[in-house]
């Protein structure tokens, strides 16, 4: 039986409250202390309401992150005709996001969850990582067509050269994740990518 309009509105309000509560709590608590109970309490719903839509804490956190940080049209990289400028904007944006306390809290939580829950890992890759890599691959392909990137480009290696060092530095908690570091990564990658 389909939900009545008022039940649908209540469901959407509850869902929004859960995602908002999750986003607030992820910034306030260490991830290990975040629980379905704390999310339910903050959202003003019962635990069973959360479990009706999500199988685990990680699934709620991932949806709250996607709700906050993804756009309906997906990731579209700029194509100004200058591959260096476009990639600089991308890499500096990645550094800014990884060092922003709000987004970093979500990303650290996901880093934990994808190691422990293969289903969350699959969903995270499908909804976030693979679309990001596809957008960057499309921009690199445009660079090949424009003669700004080598014609024999191995796209997977190029993606890893551009994204890997920043991701590695962040995941290890190393200092120096700055715009200058992003620029150095870009210079090193472009030395390989140039025609």
TrEMBL record:
Transmembrane segments: none annotated. Pfam families: TetR_C_11, TetR_N. PROSITE patterns: HTH_TETR_2. InterPro entries: Homeodomain-like_sf, HTH-type_TetR-like_transc_reg, HTH_TetR, Tet_transcr_reg_TetR-rel_C_sf, TetR_C. Residues 35-54 bind DNA. Residues 12-72 form the HTH tetR-type domain. Keywords: DNA-binding, Transcription, Transcription regulation. PANTHER family: HTH-TYPE TRANSCRIPTIONAL REGULATOR RUTR (PTHR30055), TETR-FAMILY TRANSCRIPTIONAL REGULATOR (PTHR30055:SF148). This is TetR/AcrR family transcriptional regulator. It comes from Nocardia acididurans. The lineage of its organism: Bacteria, Bacillati, Actinomycetota, Actinomycetes, Mycobacteriales.
